[in-house]
Amino acid sequence: MRFDKRFWKNKKVFITGHTGFKGTWLSIILSLLGAKISGYSLKPRKKSLFNQANIKKSLNSSTIADIRNFSLLKKKIYQFKPDVIFHLAAQPLVLQSYKDPKNTYETNIIGTVNLLEAIKKIKSIKSVVIITTDKVYKINKKNIKYSELAELGGNDPYSASKASVELIVNSYIKSFFNDNKKNTVISTARSGNV
Question: 120-158: b or e for each residue (b if 16 or more CB lie within 10 Å)?
């Protein structure tokens, strides 16, 4: 995989979920490419990749907070004035979603809405990538492979919350970011678990 170092050099990148497994790897890669990174996430576990890689020292700032805290999230984004946002903050576990569905829905759905609301008037943002999951698709026995055109679904709370995020992002794009004056491009990426 090749990365254009010139593109990322000094780009201001805001990452939600930067203390998680994927967020840490994203922070490491973007740091090596010369990006300026601000992270917003829950406190990492003691034995986390984030702590083991000691990535905090490579970040411009690291806010330990809940994505459901709208006012703090908005404040941190406004202060940093990012060019690019990667939204990875989520309750990412199917089994945990059965144990605590309310937290799963609040974190994944309201957390995403908080991000989208927070960025509506920030002109510096050119691109937003919202990470969902490959579990957003409706499962039926005929499905062997999925494409982005496959029907959304989700029987468990985690999958349903992420399918909802796909619909919400689409709604925000069409309702609030479809203006020719806006320079912000928003997309989702349906990432599989590692």
Answer: eebeebebbbbbbbebbbeeeeeeeeeeeeeebebeebb
